[in-house]
Amino acid sequence: MAKRFVIMISIFLLLNGYVGWHGMLAVGHSGFGIPSVLYWVLFVIIAFGYLTGRVSKLGAAGRLLKNIGAYYLAFFEFAVLLLPFADLAGWIMKLSGMETGTVIQLLSGTVLAIIAVLMVRGSYNAWSPIVRKHVLQVDKPAQEGGPQELRVAMASDLHLGTMVGNRHLRKLVHHMNAMEPDVVLLAGDVLDDVIEPFLRNRMADTLKQLKAKHGIYAVLGNHEYYGGHIEQYVQAMEQIGIQVLQDETVTLPGLFHVAGRKDKTAEARPGRLSMGQLVEKLDPSLPILAMDHQPYGFAQAAEAGVDLLVCGHTHRGQFFPNHFFTRRLFELDWGYMRKGLMHVIVSSGFGSWGPPIRLLSRSEIIDIKVKLKA
Hints:
Layout: H1 2-28, H2 36-47, H3 49-55, H4 60-95, H5 100-127, E1 130-141, E2 149-155, H6 166-179, E3 183-186, H7 196-200, H8 203-207, E4 216-218, H9 222-227, H10 230-239, E5 242-244, E6 248-252, E7 256-260, H11 275-279, E8 288-291, H12 298-303, E9 308-311, H13 323-329, E10 335-339, E11 342-346, E12 364-373
Parallel strand pairs: 1-12, 2-3, 3-4, 4-5, 7-8, 8-9, 9-11
Antiparallel strand pairs: 2-12, 6-7, 10-11
Helix pairs in contact: 1-4, 1-5, 3-4, 4-5
């Protein structure tokens, strides 16, 4: 594990050096005349701004540094993808007789323009949530005198913190309340990490405006564990009427069950129940709606009798080309799957981790109609 970490850090440093060197060439031929020492100092501060801002205690300055560093992470990935093509084009242009300065200016401007377009489009995708609708048939009869359809509003990965705040959260409340849901499910990573911005910006006051006929339920994600304020977070959610299920179930008599697992991160601690252990005592004649933040163990959940499993975590890679990796890491990294009699939905998430940039991924809210047999 330590060797792998060292290798990853080494690659990250080398790639940052690659991007930084190209940036120095661009600045050197831009006419601004920034001293190289000053350039590299500023570059290092920005390149490591996200990490520094997260671990520092600089208050507002630290939050600003974290946000700038977050956007750099997207810029960095796009630059790593584009610069090799720019280098190849530059080599060809120089062979054709063009002056070095002209080549650098032309290609630097082109790369920056492409990245700017990607960042603008990615920002739109991140801040403009869409509602995805699913109509699912469950092979269980409606209870006598009970409804034949359940309306479930679901979202995951809100990542409320220094970047995603009340403005974006109000969009979630607006869209979900418009559904008039029977139940709201928040499938983990409601917090980005630490709870301080959630409390300081009174995001609970916005979140408590969510309405559902039969309750609002959440589970923990890996980021709640990373932040280390689980007990305080659970209490804050309970105060606004949202129950955080930690290997717990809730039964709405004559209607349905809600089961919520601890996040997979908990396996490194005292552990968590399997899905089978979690739902074994539930009345199987009622629909079982389950939340598990990370999309693993579909077969086990289906065997346990779960009717609908909702997950998040993957962000569908959040921006190109990361979705190629998430597609190979998970049985389902986004969208819908039928596993035996069980329906599975994995959301790309409502908020963003790091930069609020999404490409080939959208901020989304899930609207589910669960139909029962007449």
